[in-house]
Specification:
The complex is a heterodimer of chains A (606) and B (77). Chain A has 27 helices and ten strands. Chain A has 606 residues and is of the alpha/beta class. In chain A, helix 13 crosses helix 14, helix 16 runs antiparallel to helix 18 and helix 25 packs antiparallel against helix 27. Chain B has a single domain, classed as Ferrous iron transport protein A (FeoA) (SH3 type barrels), CATH 2.30.30. Chain B is α+β, with helices and mostly antiparallel strands and 77 residues long. The model of chain B has no long low-confidence stretch (mean pLDDT 90). At the A-B interface, helix 3, helix 13 and strand 10 of A face helix 1, strand 2 and strand 4 of B. Strand 10 of chain A pairs antiparallel with strand 4 of chain B.
Chain lengths: 606, 77
């Protein structure tokens, strides 16, 4: 088996290329000496088995960021047969340096000039033969996004690997190699790289006399306008969320109806012979729990679809530009804002995304605010509660209010803690040209996100539902979910703290399980109230819970620890138990205070 | 040293040549990797509201950088 390392700078379409080559069958792999996980995928080509590894985007092999250190450790420890260097064809004037570094290390490599379509649109002319002879490496133009040059790339891979096995290949070229003394060798050639790159650019590339991308120029004049820019951005976001719910909610209701029919008409008769306890567990516990999450998949898919469009179009980096001045005053930067926005999908990848920050203070402060982003798992609780406790017209307003609270909580957190986590990190970001995302790419991406969410939440739900069910039905012989059950006792035990915020013992058990994952909350409530059907659950809840209590429950759910996975990833990324505990304690405290103010305030007013 | 000797002072719309980077190794490497190297022509496209970042173009790349960081980029007068 041959190992191929895929390397390149950020914004070169490296991951798109990786997916085009491997067809989305990648998995997470562990590599010796690396603390981070890398995506890898197998590929069969002309009877050869290739293993492709997608390395993090880097600017410079000698760079100081964590990703750049990961790259160096990888090359020093893992033997590779071939390095695939992916460059943005329209930015060769600066990116060739990375190819030169790889070449100077003597690694067998193939240089790919991706986004060839964009380069020709911008008037960049590339003489690949001159470039190839100048680099002494094969060079190929591709456009991963539009699938151009992929087949010919596969041929080149096979040819090049075969060439390395020929008798003419030197001993050193033949076997997969690791790089020795990487840093000192790069340091030795560093001085001559600038001249070498200038020479290569001179000989093989013709840059346009003037900037050709009028589309980007005109869009930026409006979207980055000093006065209009921010209002337009928030308008775009508001419209995006409106569209998601306008399309998603009817689909969700349709799906809920179908699942309910299936349960009543197919599963119920099928499970009828089983003892009532087992039947109740399977139908009201598992099926209902999984069903409640499944109905939210359309909304979540739409959310990821929309976020994908915003990101791939280039607008997300503009959001960093627009928000940086404001975020700077909170002790954060434009990237923290973008990551928080990504956190509205799921907090876990957003926290992993803080790796792009070098300054520890900035990174920790960003990790502290991201958990307040109202993620898709919490959203499904709120969509349900808003529909049950409020008339249809007010439901949207309630959801909007929760998004606003999420934003304010993040701001408040930054203001409270910025003194403890000061940072001096410079901010230099690329603003890529605006691009039209392709439908296929967006759909594949949304699909893989939804699949991930589903697999992830299914695990938690099965565990959570079993646990809630046990707590409700133990000790043996108690009335389910009564005050004598374990759940009832636990709920009663927490009452001194939770009664002032209007959380009754039943809601307390749901919150306790929400600590594991918010996906469990609805399924848990269904088990606690003994109501499988969403409409019946809604009725049971309105009979038991007042509107101020429901508001307090939603606020608490929004603000306290999102899920155990988030806690785990904060722990592994911060490498500090103390910081992890601070994050959990602060969110619990804030959740309690806000719920207390809301609950007591509304009751005082009413 | 003229008034427009630093990137942060260059008015939007004008172009100048980078002469030196007075930054630590980490920032210098990042700036250079993004094309902001001595000898390169840089154009300021716009500046953000509320002392926000500067939007510049260098070679075929567009960048945003904070004014504090743009002050570290010296230009030929």
């Amino acid at each position: 088996m041959s190992t191929i390392a895929v390397i390149g700078m950020p914004n070169t379409g490296k991951s798109t290329l990786f997916n085009r080559l491997t067809g989305h069958h990648s998995q997470i792999g562990n590599w010796p000496g690396l603390t981070v996980e890398l995506m890898q995928a197998g590929l069969e080509l002309s009877g050869r088995t290739l293993q492709l590894v997608d390395l993090p985007g880097i600017y410079d092999l000698r760079g100081h960021s964590e990703d750049e250190a990961v790259m160096r450790r990888f090359l020093e420890r893992s033997p590779v047969d071939l390095v695939l260097v992916v460059l943005n064809a329209s930015q060769l004037d600066r990116q060739l340096r990375l190819a030169l570094q790889v070449q100077r290390l003597g690694l067998p490599a193939l240089v790919l000039l991706n986004m060839a379509d964009e380069a020709s649109r911008f008037g960049v002319r590339i003489n690949t033969e001159a470039l190839s002879s100048g680099l002494a490496l094969p060079v190929q133009l591709v456009s991963a996004k539009y699938r151009q040059g992929i087949d010919s790339l596969k041929n080149s891979l096979v040819h090049q690997l075969a060439a390395l096995e020929e008798p003419a290949a030197t001993e050193q070229q033949k076997r997969p190699q690791t790089v020795q003394q990487l840093e000192s060798r790069l340091a030795a050639v560093d001085a001559e790289l600038d001249a070498a790159m200038a020479d290569l650019v001179e000989r093989s590339i013709t840059l346009p006399g003037r900037w050709r991308d009028q589309r980007t120029r005109r869009l930026d004049a409006v979207l980055l306008h000093p006065l209009l820019g921010l209002p337009l951005f928030f308008l775009a976001m508001a419209l995006m969320f409106q569209a998601i719910y306008a399309i998603g909610v009817p689909v969700q209701e349709g799906l809920a109806g179908l699942l309910d029919q299936f349960g009543q008409l197919v599963l119920q008769p099928l499970l009828a012979p089983l003892p009532s306890l087992v039947r109740g567990f399977l139908l009201e516990g598992l099926y209902q729990g999984l069903g409640t999450v499944m109905v939210f998949l359309p909304v979540i898919a739409l959310f990821f679809l929309a976020m994908g469009v915003v990101e791939d179009s280039g607008y997300l980096s503009r959001a960093a530009y627009l928000m940086d001045a404001f975020m700077e005053r909170l002790g954060l930067d434009g990237r923290s804002f973008v990551l928080s926005l990504m956190g509205f999908g799921c907090n876990v990848p957003a926290i992993l995304g803080t790796r792009v920050m070098r300054d520890r203070g900035l990174r920790l402060l960003s990790m502290l605010i991201i958990p307040f982003s109202l993620c898709s798992a919490r959203l499904n609780v709120f969509l349900f509660m808003a529909a049950v406790f409020f008339p249809a017209r007010q439901g949207g307003l309630v959801i909007f209010g929760l998004y606003l609270t999420s934003f304010l909580a993040a701001m408040l957190t930054a203001l409270v803690f910025r003194g403890r986590f000061p940072s001096e990190e410079p901010l230099v970001l690329e603003l890529p040209p605006y691009r039209l995302p392709t439908a296929g790419q967006m759909i594949t991406r949304a699909w893989s996100e939804v699949k991930h969410f589903w697999l992830w939440s299914r695990r938690f739900i099965i565990f959570g539902v079993v646990a809630v069910w046990l707590l409700n039905n133990l000790p043996v012989g108690v009335e389910p979910a009564s005050s004598a059950s374990l759940a009832g006792q636990l709920g009663a035990w927490m009452q001194p703290v939770l009664a002032p915020i209007g959380i009754n013992p039943k809601l307390a058990v749901a919150l306790l399980f929400g600590f594991i994952a918010k996906e469990i909350v609805l399924g848990g409530l269904a088990v606690i109230y003994g109501q499988a059907d969403p409409a019946a659950l809604g009725q049971a809840m309105t009979a038991d819970v007042s509107v101020p209590q429901a508001i307090s429950f939603m606020l608490f759910t929004l603000l306290y620890t999102p899920c155990l996975s988030t806690v785990a990833v904060i722990r592994s990324e911060s490498k500090q138990l103390g910081f992890t505990l601070l994050s959990v304690a602060w969110s619990l405290l804030l959740a309690w205070l806000v719920s207390f103010l809301a609950y007591q305030g509304i009751r005082a007013l009413a | 040293m003229g008034a427009a000797s630093r990137l942060v002072d260059l008015p939007p719309g004008s172009t100048a040549t980078v002469s030196a980077l007075a930054a630590d190794a980490g920032l210098r490497q990042r700036l250079e990797a993004l094309g902001l190297r001595p000898g390169q022509a840089v154009q300021v496209l716009r500046r953000g509201w509320w002392s926000g970042p500067v939007h510049v173009r260098v070679g075929m790349t567009e960048l945003m950088l904070r004014r504090r960081d743009a002050a570290r980029v010296s230009l030929d007068a």
